[in-house]
Amino acid sequence: MIPAFRTNGAGAAVYTSNNVANPSTLSPTKAAATQNGDLMVLFTFSRSITATCATPDGWTLIDGPLRSGTASGGTWYVYARIATGAAQDAPSVVWTGLTTGTSGDSCSAAIVAYQNAIAVKDGTSNITDASVGTPFNLPAHTTTKRSLIVAAAAKVYDSSSATITFATYAGRRALGTTSGTGHFGQLGEVVPAAAGTQAAVSVTSSYTTAVRTLAITVGLFGAPTAVTRADPGDIADETGAAVTLVAKKRVAIEPAGETGSAAVVKAAHPRTVAPAVETGTAVDPLSITHISGQHVSLPQVGDALPGDSNTALAVKAVKQLAAAAAAETDAAQAVKPAQQL
User: Fold this and answer.
1) Eight-state DSSP code of residue 316
2) Nearest to 148 by CA among 77, 222, 201, 217
């Protein structure tokens, strides 16, 4: 299935207090439009490159820590969860190892919801880590399927109003805080037309002075397409050497895999046995018209079934068996199957 953003599916971003504590707990909420079964993606960022974030209860770590290599360049974590309406849909995001105080390491968190996606990563996450103004790049990302690619970018600059504008990717949630030593950013996604490499994308920032910038791309698989299983009583069209099998309630009739040209028909209740692979023209085991070679015998009430080990299975619940040989040739005999089981 093709993933898609849940309309109005971006929750509000939350931030640490201006006087940063350690640990710091953030409590982001999902958007009201989120429906049970949606994939919720939780992004959380800190200016620290050494702090850690614990996986919230009921959530799956998709990737992280995705860190800058430069002090105060920042760290991203990405988590995901299928919405159920349970309390875990509202996570507690706990950062530890933060520098505290009014010049401490600011942190943020927000949830974005998607339809038709699952909490399984597709491909290797990628990072742009640089001191840049504008424009700068979201990194390329390669997927094995037509998957959802989520993106996040943050600049470590103390602003609640500066913005980042994506190209190609749809921007879904802006970040911006002056708490502690602040940062601003953007969250969003793209669903490529096909599997393969989504090229790096140039994006712009309203703040043009070069500052540390940490941008990431992470792939998430689309949900598998539901498959409707055929009724076992249906007859499928088989070709070549295949056998058409009709399952009647709990009784299965099997042309056994005999050598040469002989075959034995088994009719056991409630035992189910798999059909042997026949060669040549497909065979309907409920309507055997030609068995080449030797005569075919039908089991009688109480007969033991061939091939059973230990205690033989008796043929049960056979009210009437009718078999007649008709139009017999040197190489074949027609057999009428059981009229009623």
Assistant:
1) -
2) 222
